[in-house]
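[scheduler] slot 2 assigned
[scheduler] job type: sequence-to-structure, two independent chains
[scheduler] chain ordering preserved from manifest
[runner] begin chain α
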Amino acid sequence: MPLEFTVPERDDADPSAGLSRRELLRVGSVGAAGLLLNKLPSTRPFKQVFESSLAPIVIDLTAEAGTMQILPGPKTDVLRFVGQAPKSPGALQHLPNSNLGPVIRVRRGQQFNVRFRNKLMEPSIVHWHGLSAPERMDGHPRDAIETNHTYNYSFPIFNRAGTYWYHPHPDMRTGKQVYSGLAGMLIVTDEEEDRLALPRGEQDFPLILQDRQFDPKNQLSYEMDPNGYLGDTILVNGRPDYVLEAATRIYRLRLLNGSNSRVYKVAWSHGEQLT
């Protein structure tokens, strides 16, 4: 069936203009030419129709504040994505004992429908890092929504099989919101990957690497730094001293650097080759 993307529904949007009322007031002095440019379609190459027989994926995704037992002692205040997909079994993989968002699994050709609700005390929006998405579906900072507002995403997945991720993208708040826990892996599969002899199921394992710094009360310490902020504690899937219980077989480890600035060199401690 043909899959088409739709413009997001916003609580404060004027559907005839393509701009929120706040944005309209902000750019009102630009004049007719400026407003006309804002209504033109994006120049990024993007197919608007994609033939597919796959059922659409439907997800409710909420950004909210909470607490998590990360280190021994007091719990840590965190931000987190909470996801539900009752109409799309298998679309979400929840990481145990983690404040990170669920792993989202989609197939190339699926219509991707997400209803994002912001329950934070500040603006936020979700960016689908690496996905080919229409402009208004990409999570641009200008589309950030206020507390208790929603933003609806709907677009087809054109990307090849691969490991992607999602994270907030509000102006001047992205770094701290990601640092506080708003991040999750997004995995795309397709027929090309199906033909490869790659480990699947429980042998296809996501590993999200992050560095964090905690104060004496186990609270996250973060300061904006133009050179990048580095932590002194490495978390894997949101946990310190992470251990993956594995059998004697081949695993596919999907490594995602979800840190704000740190670069990693990954290797076996005993020095053997890592394939």
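[runner] end chain α
[runner] begin chain β
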Amino acid sequence: MAGEKAAKDFNGMMEGLSLRLQTLRANVNSASEHSASRPVWAMEATEGLSSAMEELKVAEEELLTARTEAETERYRYRDLFEFAPDGYLVTDGRGTITEANRAAATMLNVPEKYVVGKPLLVYVQKEDRLTYWQAISTMRLEERGVWLLRLMPRRLKPITAQVTVGAVRSWEGSLEGLRWIIRDVTEQQRVEEEARESRQQLRKLTAEVLLAEERERRRLANEIHDHIGQTLAMIKMKLGALRRDPANQNSVPGLDEVTALVSQTIQQTRSLSFELSPPLL
């Protein structure tokens, strides 16, 4: 940006100097026709030319400074680009690689000098190539987008990459190129997949525990109903028989009390069986 501004300022200054030199030339021609005014004009022309040369020198110095700043910025950008931990690629509008940093070359397992000039498509897994073309098509209208693509490094296992794409546009707004930030998320995806499987396994185990618990409840309810309940019912029947026996008439109040307790216990047993395993379940 600084270099562009300096260049514009320099061009404007050069246009001004050109106009002033044209004026001086016109004065020279006029002086040649009026020799009497030559000494006065010669002094003015010399001063004007000297001023123009000073301005030209200042413009050259500013341009040199701007070029130095631009070169410094370029080296700084190059260092950031080259040594970034993520893969960085620059492509044209159709995806042909024009620049690649070390991380991108390492990720694709290809020397940097062999990455440039190749279509990025050759490193995209076949199943994801439609997604790749959709990304490029989207960037004709959008400024930024994020996608997941499976890439195929040379002679290595495929990797899953999170790809962030930014558009590079001309002054008129047309798409001139694309900047790609490629981050290997294969390990992250593996960990997330394992976590997903663990959650599914946990849900399965929880369901099995609940089912086992329900089976145990039902078993206990059946035990209470079929064994304890029937035993208590039999005791109640025998108590009734004893109560009706004339030989036990003196013990009837005690038998009535025991019978009442047994009836209460039978009711509690039925309630407990119902709570352990409701018929609706």
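[runner] end chain β
[qc] chain β: The mean pLDDT is 79.
[scheduler] slot 2 released
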